[in-house]
Amino acid sequence: MLKTLLVFAGLMGASALWLAFRHPPRVDLEASKVDEPDQRRSQTHHLESPSFLGVVLSDEVVRLSCPMDAFVKQMQVREGANVDAGEVLVQLEAHHLADDMKLAEASLRASRTALEEAKLNQIQAQENLERMRASQSIYPAAEIREAELQLARTDHRVSAAKSEQQQAQIRLDALIRQSSQTDIVSPISGTVQHIQLKLGQTISQGQTMLSVTAPSRGVVRFAVPPDLTRQIRTGDSFKLMGFEMRYQGVVTSIAPERDEPTQLVFCLGQIQADSYPPAGASCQVFLEPKDHDHF
Any idea what the CATH number is for the domain that residue 156 is in? Predict the structure, then answer.
């Protein structure tokens, strides 16, 4: 009995496979067709909304350099922080300043002493020459000539001593100014960017520490390949992406020629909003031209 059932099940399975191959299921080709006009419109829309890399401009960027050889004692701000004019950004410390100031003070005292001695010798040489000229009958002309040369030499020593004193005073004044510049303050209100130092780091005089960028006025610059400039006109709208919120704006100018180093054409746009993204920020500019015929 069991053998009979197995044979019957095998025959039924073979029949089903034969029917499946003989009459395959019909596919609704009409439903699978893509709406070609819609597809073309999608492609056209993609082509008509080009995007370009841009940056939000600032009216002013101040780069702060280290006024002396020092090390970073304290960092008061972080990258991207908004600061006010006069706010302390970095605190420096320079142990060598105290020793340098002692040496400069000693040098100034020595130059003052040298100047006083030179002036005294000048007075003596002047008095000696006047005495000899008053008694020319008893002094040979050669001795009077030597007295004149001695006075000229003392005049030169006085001038040199004065110059040395002035230089010593300048060196001391510079050290005094440096000692008052250990607190680096922001000269303008803006955003801290491009920090190039770390806590405890030793930095050299003249080394760039950071930059402070003035607040943005909503001007964005973006670069366009020359062959795509025909797609852009002044007054075209754009969307700005790359921030927590989106911005709208319009194209305000298009450069008449390409930039030589980059071989790109730079365009400017004005963001239309109550507040603007931070200056120096990178963004993506999506154009929305008014007249699509010129694409």
Answer: 1.10.287
